[in-house]
Fold each of these.
Amino acid sequence: MKLEDKIITVTGAGNGVGRAVALEALRRGARVAGVDISAHGLEETAGLAAAGDRFASYVVDITDKAAVSELPATIAERFGAVDGLVHLAAIIQPFLKVKDLDDAAIERVFAVNWWGTLHLNRAFLPVLLDRPEAHIVNTSSMGGFIPVPGQTIYGASKAAVKLLTEAPRAECRGTPVRVTVVIPGGMATNMPANSGVSIAVDPEQAAKLAKNLTTADAAARAILDGMTKNAYRVLIGRDAKLMDLFYRVNPSGAAALIARQMKGLVA
């Protein structure tokens, strides 16, 4: 689906990849409803966009089912019926083993990553099915197909999102709606801080990890290119692409490699 003159809802638009996608969609001629829990972040995005009435901000907690259910109609009052949902809002967990995580941390990750995704898809899908053409983009993770020590709950939530995207794509066959799953690897964003998670890493290890990080702008271009091409999935970053191939060939070896790279990060 081409974005020009389309109305696109972008979650996580207050920072990181969500902000980059919102700005790139505007550059491609869309009107954008930016959704985020942070009013300040959305204000910053609006200032960077300088897009006038083509950008509108909606402060919404995506774990709030009632608030999410009202969102399509609220956006329609401003722009008209939505043509696409690009869902990027998510959080990671503290870098702890499963046995050391408290229930509150586990429930918070699933509330945002799983229930937030489900609420949004169920709220927007009826509207999208009535459009001439429409698109849903959900974001999984490299951690959703390969085990990452210290991010087990996050990975489980993103594995669930992967299936929650692929199955509705099959269900939407023969309708105007196309569905794409995005699978990012390491991203150069503030996701840990935005998730309330600190990372203890020495400068040498940080420099090594940074080499494999994809910028938010590069990710945004890849995501919207995939949307334009109605892609089944979009792998973001060299690390995600390589590990996708490696894991298919040698699951145990791929998992061991990731475990070695995570050594020292997990408490």
Amino acid sequence: MADAELIVDARAVHAWYGSSHVLQGIDLQIARGQALGLLGRNGMGKSTLVRTLLGHVSQRSGYIGLFGQDCSRARPHEVARLGVAYVPEGRGIFPNLTVRENLVMAARPGRDGRSHWPYERVLHTFPRLSERLRHLGAQLSGGEQQMLSIGRALMTHPELIILDEATEGLAPLVVAQIWRVIGEICAGGIAALIVDHDYRKVLAHCDRAMVLQKGQVVLQGPRGEVTRGVAGYLGV
């Protein structure tokens, strides 16, 4: 894989919370337009890896390249400006802003100056939000909040979107809609890093996948290869 194709090029990444050595030498690459699934049981370092890539973990070492730039010591707002959108576990919407305000405050053109995900397209993708435009974030159901969180991320016109447990705790019909949208995002050429407890769905939507165990990569490769070996690491 040529370096010019890489949106994410992380090498020998370590991260700590205090004296706890959580990530231990992670290598991770994501090419332009590629979807990578990040799998592992709870507590194995998935969310820490996501937060480290985004600049939220201060105790870190190793090389983190984003869009050809050295972002090893970059702060979160610097990472976001490069074209990385984050849909966090817990949704992270603004509860005292309306649905419309949550969306519009995030709107900006992409790095190429084009707007592939304008306001109208987000509302078309999530019709439920168009019915709730004047509702405050705190007045929405969990599923509606997740739709809003994804819609807000898309309005930044990212080249890479990171989804951390985007379907957790949602009703089955909402989960199905979220996965449909994730499929549309990936098919549209946006690179994605997907973390979700439903490993079968993750593998169905990804080109490649990697499995973490105790802060180390124990399995990675094309989804077909990972599918054959993943069950033993996830205890399923």
Amino acid sequence: MLQSIEVARGARVTPSVVAPRPATPETRESAGLEKPCIVTRHLTAFFGETAAVKDVSVAIPQQAVTAIIGPSGCGKSTLLRCLNRMHETVPNARVDGVVEILGSAIYGEGTNATAVRRHVGMVFQRPTPFPTMSVKANVAAGLRVDSKDRRADQAEKEIVEEALHRAGLWDEVKDRLNESAMGLSGGQQQRLCIARALATHPRVLLLDEPTASLDPLSTQKVEELVYHLRESVTLVIVTHNMQQAARVSDRTAFLLGGELIEFAPTNALFTAPKDQRTEAYITGRFG
């Protein structure tokens, strides 16, 4: 259970053109589905009177990577933002239905959105380091630590180092911690944003097209990071790149017109989709 949230509540097809990564004995599908991390029930997201996500019910497994694919404008990013209550920050936006993280409903009277976001981190399409802060300060930005307490300051240093290690960035920046984050490359800045999200030890990490603005080498590093992070955190990644979804994800959801068309193990969805619309999309007939 997310204790801080509870406290805050007070109380036959042609093989795909995409080559999915081979299935391995370590695949977490069966274990993850027994106790899903994220569950949505009849989730609908509105902008004014327009529904961008329509009646989506899905169970996302723990400690796995779930990819969300679909053509532009199909509701991928909106669905992702509903999972940590970012959608409601848009004027005239609202959500109907249920979203649960590890059994705790994240919407409802008295639920603290800030507490939710501490457990459900998010990284956006373009790197967003705080330009006036150092590398170290960027990672620590999400922490609420009393800097006057030496013990707290030491804990912060340890948390920053741990987060940078987890983001695969420590060796590259350990001698630049007090320098501006804007001096890092684009790929390093994106991994810095991932480290910032990891610093609060979230249970879930949401990634909204995290490599869309990166070069191929930086993209590879982020993909490798995503693949390994699933050992300790549940990841949901929105991507327009089907090859990327095939490389990094355990399960894939296909959205079309705001509706969830198909949700299946990645290998199955890309090699033997059950819905003709999924087949049409992954074979390039539209999108």
Amino acid sequence: MATKKANKKEVLLDSIFNESCIDTMKRIPDNFVDVVITSPPYNMNLRIRKGEYCSRQIVKELSTKYEGFSDNLPIDEYNKFHTEVLRELLRISNLVFYNIQIVTGSKRSVFKMIGEFSDKLKEIIVWDKGHGQPAMQEQVLNRRSELILVFENDYPISRQFRSAKFKRGTLEDIWEIKRERKKGVDNHGATFPEELIRTILDNFTEENDIIYDPFLGTGTTAVVSKKLNRRYIGSELSKDYFKICQTQLKNADSLLV
């Protein structure tokens, strides 16, 4: 993978930013990032009543993943935001792993994004979490899986990842990885398992590659990147989660000493 030039001064590597990812990406040059790994908001508070969308507060730890970001956006606004984010991600990086869960408040938007970015959609990986939480309504399927939409710029027409490290026949498109709840992290029901990040980094990146997570959450992408000797950049809007990210990175530093 390409080595980054030192003259791109606006981006601080191995740094996280307490701001919107849109603001961070404005400072990131074209094709600066090797791989994006992220899980955006699910829009869990947008529900349906009598056949129409409506905002509804449900269980907090499942619905307020991002403080300061409305998790009940009207479906058109939600789609507009994620379209903008994806366009920027594909400007700054060749390869994007976009983890989403199909819920009521995101379903139509996800299907639109798949269509709108079909020429960049390279692969869909199913993350099997091993157990589906009980649905909140009758006659609704338990959601055991999430999808990782993989977008690519340079060779999306093919299923071949030309820069991947895994050998033929060794990596499947269903990843059986159990959910993980971090110690000391409350009210966050959607933390990335470290194993999921490691699977991507081990198979699709090299040491010193630059990894970006625009919805950093509690910092798993940055922490695992640090542990595996990758450079990282992260954006997190929530002040509370940003502080957790800082603590997690300090703890990772102590483990590496």
